[in-house]
Each structure stands twice: as structure tokens, then as C-alpha cells.
Amino acid sequence: MSHDESTKVKIIEVAIECFGELGYDGTSMRLIAEKSGISKPAIYYYFPDKQHLFQGIVEFVLNSFTNALENIKNKKTDAISKLKEIIVARFQPLSNQSTTRRFLHGMFTNGVKHGMKFDHKNMFEAQENIILAIIQQGIDEGHFRADLNKKSLLYAFIGTINLYTRDNLMNNAAPVNEEQADQIIKQIIQGVGKPAQ
After folding, report:
1. Dihedral angle at the C-alpha atoms of 136, 137, 143, 148, nearest 10 degrees?
2. 82 near 72, Cβ under 8 Å?
3. Can you state the percent helix, strand and coil of the chain, rounding each to 5?
4. SS3 state at 95
5. Is residue 9 situated within a structural domain?
6. Potential cystine with 84: which of 7, 33, 181, 191 (Cβ 3.0-4.6 Å)?
7. Which residue has the higher pLDDT, 175 or 151?
8. The dihedral formed by the CA atoms of 52, 94, 91 and 193, expressed in degrees to the nearest 10
9. In whole angstroms, what is the distance from residue 157 CA to residue 126 CA?
10. Does residue 90 lie in a domain region?
């Protein structure tokens, strides 16, 4: 990582902590400068204002998860194992002591204010494409039917993860562990209907 990149990451990490603890309105660029030990002019070089910094955090968190998904996709394991690992990986930044967890909790409870606009399509498209590639791997391996509607499985998978994430953030439910991830995958794949008699 270059000096420029490491400085930007340090600003973001400190900003996540500040936004997570104090919220958007309670956080100032001056406070971030004090806590990070990076001058305000240097922070403004990377982020022209607080809104851009907040947006930069959201992109940083999403990109971190996208990189984790890419690493999982490239592993020499079967598709089922990869889907289970994705579920568990989703909860790694959401441990009770995590500043990222507090930041995301604030976004869920307080919403995104100040007219911020996010390009959700592009933000999540890379993640969806990675999961679709893993689903295709599952078809190629014979785990899934050849006539499977890949988008339907993708939406079922992502929707399930999102609801578990919301439960964790809003209700302090325990993060999903490997055993629960196994049960989730089995239910998605096997369905909920009774076997034909």
C-alpha cells in the first residue's frame, strides 16, 4: 500500500470510529484531524467535505466486502462451501466491539441524511456478479439444477443475508456462525416443501 493509500485508509478508519460513536452531526473534520494526527488540509486533499468523507466510508466498507468475496470466489473449494463462507464473512465486521458495526448501526437507525445519493446499482453489481459466478460454479459441479434461475437464487441468498444482518444490527442478534450458515444454505437449496410421497 502506497503512502497516499495508507493515509486515506487511516482517515477513513478514524472517521468510521467518530461517525459510529457521535453520528454524522456530532462529527467534525477537525475532530477527525485531531484523532488521526493528520492535518485538516491533508484530509481535505482526499475528501473536500464531510459528506464526501461519509460517502468514502460507505464505498470503503463495500469495497472491503467485495474484495473478501473475490478472495472466496478464487479459492479451490466447491460452490456450496463458498456460499457458506460468504455468509460468515458478512458478519466479521459486525462483531459487538467493531467500530464498523457502530457506523452501520447508525446508518440503519438514523438513515442517510443531508441529501446524500448513492449509486446502489454500481455499488452492489460487482458483489452480485461474484455470487452469480459461484452459483454458476455450483451448476457446473452438479450441486444445482442446470435449469436453475440464477437471479432468483441470487436474490434469495442476498435477501436472507440482509435480513440476518438487519437483525444483528437492530436487535443485537448474534452473528451467524458456520453451523447456522450451513443450515441457511441447506434450506435455500433444499427448499421448505415436504418431499413428495
Report:
1. 0
2. yes
3. 75, 0, 25
4. coil
5. no
6. 181
7. 151
8. -100
9. 15
10. yes
Q: How far apart are the first and last CA of the chain?
A: 59
Specify the pTM. Answer: 0.83
Number of compact structural domains in the chain: 1
- The answer to whether the Cα torsion of 79, 81, 84, 85 is positive or negative is negative
Instruction: Give the model confidence (pLDDT) of 78-101 as tens digits.
Output: 999 999 999 998 877 666 556 777
- What is the domain range of residue 100? 57-190
Could you tell me if residue 47 is inside a domain? no
Please give the Cα distance from 129 to 131 (Å, whole number).
5
pLDDT tier for residue 173 given thresholds of 50, 70 and 90: confident
101: closest CA among 86, 91, 111?
Answer: 91
Residue 184 domain-assigned (yes or no):
yes
36, 14 contact by CB (below 8 A): yes
Burial (Cβ within 10 Å: 0-12, 13-18, ≥19) of residue 56: middle
Task: Check: CB of residue 185 under 8 Å from CB of residue 157.
Answer: no
53 grid coordinates:
468523507
pLDDT-wise least confident of 14-18, 31-35, 91-95, 129-133: 91-95
CATH number, domain with residue 137:
1.10.357
